[in-house]
């Protein structure tokens, strides 16, 4: 479970990015986080990844209070979270296989584990035939599927998708969403921040809407209605 309890975030320049946010996400849920630019979506993601600290309030993930987490514990905590971004963030000098394997090397997985797990996850996202290709040889959709494979290869309990379809055409975005939905059906909690109104409205998942750092709507099977 993920809980934001009375969480506020004020940056050093005085900008209040979040204001008394209370959110609870059950294990295995699929939740869209929507809102205009500057509404607080990216701040929420950074707080969940413990890249920044809240000004007030508590964030609890799987019964762990992040404010009490020691610095040396943060890398281990992040191993349980897969992250996919809009701009893919692949290593250009590594192949698809090597990009995905790198995520396992960072957590010191054995070579045997890497040889077993990487082909399996590439097959899951439909990239088995592209294992030896480099990012520059891939389409945008293939690059995002590689990024998804990298995010999933360590079997995280949570997947954070930050505008994962932002650079993709509608058909390719639909393919990526099918994969993310499949991942959720396998038990992974999915939190997706997005501006993609059509995707949100077609998926019929829980939608949490932010406006100027405040949660203005939290609806099961909701729709994207906020102002852009």
Record the SSE blueprint.
Blueprint: E1 2-10, E2 16-25, E3 30-34, H1 41-48, E4 56-61, E5 64-65, H2 74-79, E6 81-85, H3 96-106, H4 111-124, H5 140-152, E7 158-162, H6 170-185, E8 189-194, H7 197-203, E9 206-211, E10 214-219
Parallel strand pairs: 3-8, 3-9, 6-7, 7-8
Antiparallel strand pairs: 1-2, 1-4, 4-5, 9-10
Description:
By secondary structure, this protein is an alpha/beta fold. The chain has a domain at 30-36 and 70-219: P-loop containing nucleotide triphosphate hydrolases (Rossmann fold, 3-Layer(aba) Sandwich). 33% of the residues lie in helices and 26% in strands. It is built from seven helices and ten strands. The protein has a six-stranded mixed beta sheet, sandwiched between helices. It has a four-stranded antiparallel beta sheet with strand order 2-1-4-5, covered by helices on one side. β7, α6 and β8 form a beta-alpha-beta unit. α3 crosses α4 (111-124). The chain is globular and about 45 Å long. The two termini are 30 Å apart. The mean pLDDT is 92.
